[in-house]
Amino acid sequence: MKLKIEDNVVQALKHGLSYELYKALLLSYGKRGEKAFFYVKERRVKKYRDFFVVVGREEYLVDDFFCTCKDFQLRLKGRKPCAHILALFIAKKLKAYDEFDTYYIDFLIPND
Ligand SMILES: [Zn+2]
Fold first, then answer.
1. Which of 16, 26, 35, 51 could form a disulfide bond with 83, CB atoms 3.0-4.6 angstroms apart?
2. Which structural domain, as residue segments, surrounds residue 13?
3. Cα–ligand 1 centroid distance for 19 (angstroms)
4. Strand 52-55 vs strand 66-67: parallel, antiparallel, or unpaired?
5. How far is the CA of 111 from the centre of ligand 1 (A)?
6. Is residue 41 part of a domain?
7. With a threshold of 0.90, does the pTM exceed it?
8. Any idea what the Cα angle at residue 109 is, between residues 107 and 112, rounded to 5°?
9. C-alpha of residue 62 to centroid of ligand 1, in Å
């Protein structure tokens, strides 16, 4: 199941990373939308060979309908997009992410 992104956000994307987009995100998603805008603006969306990662307070593994953050899993219960999923959606549409030719999984060191 793909998470629906509000139409006004999709519409505003044609203006790029603009005030229109910021406003649409804020109106539709409140603080989460605002955060998503700045994640993209600050180039915190990273594409590795295996995963997309959004750098928030921690680094989160994100795809179109899943995020490893607590906000998405506990508060939103996987039903609505968190700031990271929104950021990924925007970053993909605007091609506004940094790309790394490495596997993110290689950086994940098990702590046992
Ligand atoms: Zn998240």
1. 35
2. 7-98
3. 23
4. unpaired
5. 22
6. yes
7. yes
8. 175
9. 7
**Residue at 109 is within a domain:** no
**Distance, CA 110 to ligand 1 centroid (Å)?**
21
**Is 82 contained in some domain?**
yes
Buried b (16+ CB within 10 A) or exposed e, 98-108: eeeeeebeeee
Give tens-digit pLDDT for 55-94: 999 999 999 999 999 999 999 999 999 999 999 999 999 9
Q: Most distant CA pair in the chain: distance in Å?
A: 47
Sorting pLDDT into bands at 50, 70 and 90, what band is 107?
Answer: confident
Q: Are strands 98-99 and 45-47 parallel, antiparallel or unpaired?
A: parallel
For residue 1, tell me if it sits in a domain: no
23 pLDDT above the threshold of 90: yes
Q: Looking at the 3D structure of the chain, how many domains does it have?
A: 1
Q: Which residues surround ligand 1, an ion (CB under 5 A)?
A: 67, 69, 72, 82, 84
